[in-house]
TrEMBL record, chain B:
Keywords carried by this UniProt record: Oxidoreductase, Peroxidase
Keyword Amino-acid biosynthesis attached: no
One Pfam family of this chain: CMD
SUPFAM superfamilies reported for this sequence: AhpD-like (SSF69118)
TM helices/strands, residue ranges: none
Record InterPro entries: AhpD-like, AhpD_core, CMD-like
The Carboxymuconolactone decarboxylase-like domain, residue ranges: 24-105
UniProt entry tagged with the keyword Heme: no
Annotated protein name in UniProt: Alkylhydroperoxidase
Source organism of the structure: Streptomyces colonosanans
GO MF annotation, one: peroxiredoxin activity
Amino acid sequence: MTRTTLLDREVGRAMSALSAAAKKGIGDPGLAGLVMIRASQINHCAFCLDMHLRLAREGGESEDRIQLLNAWEEAEDLYDERERAALALTEAVTLLTDGFVPDEVYEMAAKHFDEAELAHLIGLITVINGWNRLMVSRRIPPGGYTP
Amino acid sequence: MTADENVRYAPEEPARLQWAKHAPEVYKAMIRLDAAARQGLDPKLYELVKIRSSQINHCAFCLDMHTKDALAAGETVERIVQLSAWQESKHFYTEKELAAIELTEAITVLTDGFVPDEVYAKATKHFDEAELAQLIAAITVINAWNRFGVTTRMTPGHYEAGQHK
């Protein structure tokens, strides 16, 4: 069945402001891109995957790092420790229903990110989870994003 | 917290991180988003949505806040208590509320797959398109608050009804 494409304009603007604020506080577009893709994989968001894969490629991300992100734990040479800490946190915060963001995951992230960076990283993981929900529930098809 | 003074409870743990202090512009954007998403929604229905999402995501702070807000808005204890078993206590809720609760579960547990057609279809029967768009936004927003609450382990028990309105 056809689903609504409606998104209240102020909701859209507030979501964009939230994304911008989180990204600015991290200041590492490459890392932010990996987080966006990984959450969208877990949440099965086709629109978001299409968009963030395009953006990552445009940003110069390597094809290997994009392709193997779904198995990053077994691809040790491709992602540094800071990125791995962020990816583990992304998975835990995305899969909240698996339970509470484990201490070891949180502590690993806190080792690589100072408090302000960590607060923004949590914000970024939260906002992509938000976009994933808005797109999957309305079944917005992939391919609609143009930079 | 209203607790028996003569009982020794487990100690209260501090939050992991004061995220709003360290990312004030993120917090501000969340407040703006929250205000935009709740437009046009029945506040009582929205509290049920927020409680159910917070139950699924296990957000203690959010449960503390939204059960208190719901009670202050005239919600009954019975409907709050039964909410996590709503499938067996449907007669506590209206069909419209049930459709919203079911949609809340599907959007909250995205990893179970894609917000099923039958859940979406049921929601369209009870909400017109604009209202449904707001409901989807509202479910998204409580999921966002849940993520901040759980990840930074915000401490429950100190919220007073209406404090964040």
